[in-house]
Amino acid sequence: MISWPPTKLISLTRLISVIGRRYYARHAGGSSYESGIPQTEPGREEAVILSNDGEMFVCWHPQPVIPYSCTRPLPDVPETDTVLNVQYNSEVKELFKRQHPYYVNQKLQKLTFTTKHRWFPKHDVWAPPKPPKDREYL
Amino acid sequence: MSSYLNSAVTEHRLKLFEKEKERQRRLITDVHKITVQYRDHPEHCTLIMNKKLSTPYDCARHVSQLVGDRAVLAEADPFYANRAFWRSCSLMLGSVLENSFKSKFYVQLCSFPAPNVRTGSFVYDVDLGIDWTPTKEELRMLSAQMVRLSMQKLPFERLSVKWYAQRLLFHILINPSKIDGSAGDEVTVYRVGRFLDMSCGPLMANTAQLGRVTITAVHPLPSASSRRLHRVQGVALPHSILMNHFSYSILEKRARKLNEGRIPDLVAMGLS
């Protein structure tokens, strides 16, 4: 019988080491033999296995290997005759610009998935009163 | 063309610097306390610090964070602060020059003359291995690198090393023009980021104290030897000083003129 959640964890490390060794043998240039793990996509091996004693499920999801046929060439860097290793681009130009707060706020909204209201200055209602109130009961 | 790589040299220097720093730290085995009197804003106070370990910067951080961030030197005279600022700018310029060229060029930094604010520009003399007349964009790119360096808020780290240790740091590193300029038992080595340089100091605390900065000109220097040095010049303002762009453009124009500081004599250094 399978009990859920699984109570035993004994064979987990052994199983993973076995699968790992097979994986290694396949991808790191060792002796090639079939691991028997199906590829859900090219380069992606994923499996959920029930252990031999039937007490737990083991999930195998290593870092996928991207096959060469699925890659794209690197973008061409426009060749200039400069001796410097930095390109003169918009990023450099922006370093010298001082942006209006409106545009800074717009960027912040996009970064944090918030509305514009979050970025307006707000009167702090929870700030301690000035001068501080005399609270004798404390 | 040289077979040396600036990145490899930097790496080697850093390793030696770290080693020497670790060695010096091990020499201090027990910590003694000293009292430091502070008489200035925001309040007078007495601090108990560690002998041979604490720096004026540590004291400033105890006084208040604002003082720690903004204090340039542990010295009241603005004359010294100005000089320190100019010197720090030269050092940062050296760092930028060493890192901004394509790897096929081996950039050898030579030296910078004693800081003089009246000349209107800070300077670094450098051997690029080529004759270079930069375009406006290239100068702007160098300025951008300076801005980037100041945005990183890197501290200037100081280390006094004996003559032999200094030879280790610079002589092996095939930068002979760096060592012959100064003789004596101890020299001071400064580190900013991954860049190392010799300077008598003092320098400012942090690269963030650099505000507006422009690299204005690169002048080829007359020299009797086969090596050709270039004098790279720039002008900068501290972070806390804001200036109208028109006034600043006058400063920039002034900084484009060739700086009259002492020109290093390569022949006297034994480099022909």
The CATH H-level superfamily of the largest domain in chain B is Threonyl-trna Synthetase, Chain A, domain 2
Biggest interface between protein chains, with counts per chain? A-B, 9 and 18 residues
* CATH topology label of the largest domain in chain B: Threonyl-tRNA Synthetase, Chain A, domain 2
- The CATH class of the largest domain in chain B, by name, is Alpha Beta
Largest sheet of chain A: 2 strands, antiparallel
Report the β-strand fraction of chain B as a percent range.
Answer: 15-25%
Which structural class best describes the helix and strand composition of chain B? Answer: alpha+beta
Which of globular, elongated, flat, extended, rod-shaped describes the shape of chain A?
A: flat
Structural category of chain A:
alpha+beta
Number of strands of chain A: 4
Tell me roughly what share of residues is in helical segments of chain B.
25-40%
Unreliably modeled segments of chain A:
6-13, 28-33
- What is the tally of helical segments of chain A? 3
- Total of domains of chain B: 2
Largest β sheet strand count, sense and barrel closure of chain B: 4 strands, antiparallel
Mean pLDDT of chain A: 77
How would you concisely characterize the structure shown here?
The complex is a heterodimer of chains A (138) and B (272). Chain A is α+β, with helices and mostly antiparallel strands and 138 residues long. Helices cover 26% and strands 9% of the residues of chain A.
Describe this structure in words.
Chain B: Keywords: Protein biosynthesis, Ribonucleoprotein, Ribosomal protein. Chain B: This is 39S ribosomal protein L39, mitochondrial. Chain B: One of its GO terms (molecular function) is nucleotide binding. Chain A: Keywords: Mitochondrion, Ribonucleoprotein, Ribosomal protein, Transit peptide. Chain A: InterPro entries: Ribosomal_mL42. Chain A: Belongs to the mitochondrion-specific ribosomal protein mL42 family. The complex is a heterodimer of chains A (138) and B (272). Chain A has 138 residues and is an alpha+beta fold. Chain A has a domain at 10-69. Helices cover 26% and strands 9% of the residues of chain A. Chain A has helices spanning 10-27, 90-95, 101-112; strands at residues 39-41, 44-45, 47-50, 57-60. In chain A, the strands form 2 sheets. Chain A has a two-stranded antiparallel ribbon. The termini of chain A are far apart. The model of chain A is unreliable at 6-13 and 28-33 (pLDDT under 50). Chain B has 272 residues and is α+β, with helices and mostly antiparallel strands. Chain B folds into 2 domains: 6-16 and 77-256, Threonyl-trna Synthetase, Chain A, domain 2 (Threonyl-tRNA Synthetase, Chain A, domain 2); 31-70, no CATH class. Chain B has helices at residues 6-27, 56-63, 65-70, 78-100, 136-151, 163-171, 176-179, 245-256, and strands at residues 33-38, 45-50, 108-111, 122-127, 156-162, 186-192, 195-198, 210-220, 230-238. In chain B, the strands form 3 sheets. Chain B has a 4-stranded antiparallel beta sheet, sandwiched between helices. Chains A and B meet through loops of A and helix 5 of B.
